[in-house]
Amino acid sequence: MTGKYDGILSKLSPPVHITASVLLVFILGGINILTGVELSFSIFYLVPIYYVTWYAGRWPGIFTAVLSAGVWLAADYLSGYEHSHHLIPIWNMIVRLFFFLTTACLLAALKRNIQRRRTLERIFFHDILNIAGSVRGFAELLKNKDVSGSQEIYDLIYDAADKNLEEIENQRTLANAEDHDLHVEIGQVSSKLLLQLVANLYRSHPVGKDKLIVVSPECENIFFESDQGLLSRVLGNMIKNALEATKPGGTVTVGSRADGEQVEFRVHNAAVISQKVQKKIFRKEVSTKAKGRGLGTYSIKILTEYLKGQVTFTSSEEDGTTFRASYPLRFPHNRKTGSS
Predict the structure, then answer these.
(1) Are strands 310-316 and 320-328 parallel, antiparallel or unpaired?
(2) pLDDT of res. 336
(3) How many H-runs (helices) and E-runs (strands) does the chain carry?
(4) What are the respective helix, strand and coil percentages of the chain, to the nearest 5?
(5) Which residue from 112, 96, 119, 8 is spatially nearest to 53, judged by alpha carbons?
(6) Which domains, ranges and CATH numbers included, belong to the chain?
(7) Which of 26, 158, 166, 181 is the most exposed place for a label (fewest CB within 10 A)?
(8) What confidence tens digit (pLDDT) does each residue in 92-151 have?
(9) What pTM does this model have?
(10) Alpha carbon separation from 211 to 73, 152, 225, 232 (Å, rounded)
């Protein structure tokens, strides 16, 4: 039942929540005047603060906290009670305001952490299903007894299974991330080898059926410092997104190159992203695909930021769509955590 009401309230706009909380604060103020100062109403003022912070955000919560403290001060004066010193009501208001503001800020931080945890979990399931699709594609090839290159397929299945274990380990790391910090395991990475490994996974993925993944002849092999597991997830999502936008018979081209003190990865396809989607493409769940499949670009962004990199894209009728993700050649070892 609680989940049902939460779902209904979550669909209401912030102005509705703010209006409801303001009305509730004034109602509490009226009751406070009638009951006098002998009965403490602090716990009841927390109700509108909690409500509006949870459903409308931090700043509406702060506004309601300030309003609650002000209404309580007014109720103290209007109740007719005479304090031993005229500054006592002001002092009490300041103490209450600090209490209310602390509650609003802590609750807003808790809500952000819960939302972020849920998002990271959904990113994990999104990515793990990508790899499971590759394993299924390899298995379907093996069903044909006359298939050639069986040993190569066995090796690819082993690589995909190993990748699955790596993804699960990465999710455990993400689940322990706090305060927008994520520990990353830094090692030496070969850009071209990594691209080839990820491309091989998606060549047998269902989304890659009747499509080509080509490593550009101009691809440079750059050695740099990064977290190969997280980086594989980023490149995998870039390639998968490009494949989903590519028509049968089309080609997705991947490559890497040195760009000053950075290494740049590129994934290109001939499709064009609409202007409407381009403006908000890195937001959570922004997608032209089915519900629950819009976390790919958000995953690319958040994990790239963890790796101290940046991701950009261009899309036009003339040149198609190219996603670029750049990372430092030398990872800043004095800061092994990243935040978004």
Answers:
(1) antiparallel
(2) 43
(3) 10, 9
(4) 60, 15, 25
(5) 112
(6) 2-82 (no CATH), 119-338 (3.30.565.10)
(7) 158
(8) 889 989 999 999 999 988 888 787 777 767 766 766 777 777 777 777 766 665 556 566
(9) 0.56
(10) 69, 20, 32, 21
